[in-house]
Amino acid sequence: MSLNTTPRASSARPTEVDVVVLGAGFAGLTAARELSQRGLSVRVLEARDRIGGRTWYADGLGRGLELGGTWVHWTQPYVWAELARYGIGTVPSPAPAVAHWWEAGAARSGDPEELLARLDEPNRRLTADARRVFPTPFRPLEERALVESVDHETIADRIATLDLPAADRELLETFWTLNVNGSIDEAAYTQALRWVALTNGDWAVNFEACASYKVEGGTGRLAQAIADDSDADLRFGAVVEAIEHDDDSVRVTTADGRVHTARHAVVTFPLAALSRIRVTPPLPLAMDAAANEGQAGLGTKVWFRLEGVTEPFVAFGEKDWPLNFFQGEYPDGDGIIVIGFGPDARAIDPTDVRAIEEVIGRLIPGARVTAVEAHDWVADEFAGETWPMHRPGYLTGALAGFHAGDGRLRFAGADYAHGWGGFIDGAIEGGLIEARRILTENAGAQTAVPLLAATA
């Protein structure tokens, strides 16, 4: 079906384009592709000088590194379909040869499978209600009463009810601190259930989905493929300061004073970045409060070269360490390139070689770090968070509002996903859903005009 992209005669003010997309991450790129391929005029405003949003495949430590979002999985239907569409494969992270962890005030080492086995029963107990609360996890509010019954709890709250031995409780706490990339005292228990429901209630498959398979050639390869498939007008360095919307149009003001007018807007900003934008009229109270509160994912991700270790490994520290998880990814001569995560971006300078060496040295005595590479997403004004991990009350308080949108504003991205919240898959999903909504509304508006004219 060919769509007429001429603005409706009833519009109160002229518009430059049919749709303005705010942000060129996976949600924005997907929405722009879908809309432009169906004949609508689309302008994408991106504050950075690159596409990809909170994914960023860049050179570092002598190779390509994922500084932001990284892993994908076949249980994630939207990203998997995009990989198939563009003929892009995946590459596995290496299987660890050894595990290191902290227990009873000392470093331990052993078989990685044995360490994962220790996590099995505690995680099964923690997530036993995943499919009951989220029986159809891509419709997360279908059993709203069940979600409301637990949406006030944090992950730490629920772990405290399990009556685990101290060592098992501490290991489970640091495991979920890794998943949150923030404090489990701030992260919603419903987010843990929701993630595991998406892998049919199996926490181990969920863990595989989180940290096992990477996009061949990097996330930037997939992002560029989607961008190349779009006819949208992509503008870099366009820092959005204000959004004004009414029944007829949307006006977006950027820092250079330019006003961009459109019939619809797809907003893909993370919650933390959204809170910095002046929206007139203001968003509904629950949505505005959620933006101001932000997400719990406020941690650190760092790559570094560890000398003297050549075998892939996995390592867990304690939950409150500045870096509490490490994974040896790329053997590199007489060393290995390691990825590390910590729960609080304020707790460590990710470019401080000695600080990183001190933490990894607790688990691997004599560890020597020779180089580091990182990006501080929490300090990044266009992110303000790492991957989105919801706070208690977000699902039942604000998510439905973001799914509904506000007038001509639509919201898409990992922060607002129906399914894989916090993942590339959720961002792509949101871009597809909101583009489809706009296409349907546009088609209805165009067919309605002749009917009105015929009866005039």
Key terms:
15 helices, globular, disordered C terminus, seven-stranded mixed β-sheet, 23% strand, FAD/NAD(P)-binding domain, eight-stranded mixed β-sheet, disordered N terminus, alpha/beta, 456 residues, Polyamine Oxidase, Chain A, domain 2, 20 strands
Biggest sheet character? 8 strands, mixed
Task: Kindly state the number of beta strands.
Answer: 20
Which fold does the CATH topology of the domain at 17-53 and 217-295 and 385-455 refer to? Answer: FAD/NAD(P)-binding domain
Shape: globular
CATH class descriptor of the domain at 17-53 and 217-295 and 385-455: Alpha Beta
The span between the termini is 26 Å
What's the helix count? 15
- The proportion of residues in beta strands is 15-25%
Q: Which architecture name of the domain at 17-53 and 217-295 and 385-455 does CATH use?
A: 3-Layer(bba) Sandwich
Q: What is the CATH superfamily of the domain at 17-53 and 217-295 and 385-455?
A: FAD/NAD(P)-binding domain
pLDDT averaged residue by residue? 94
Helix percentage: 25-40%
Radius of gyration: 23 Å
Quaternary assembly: single chain
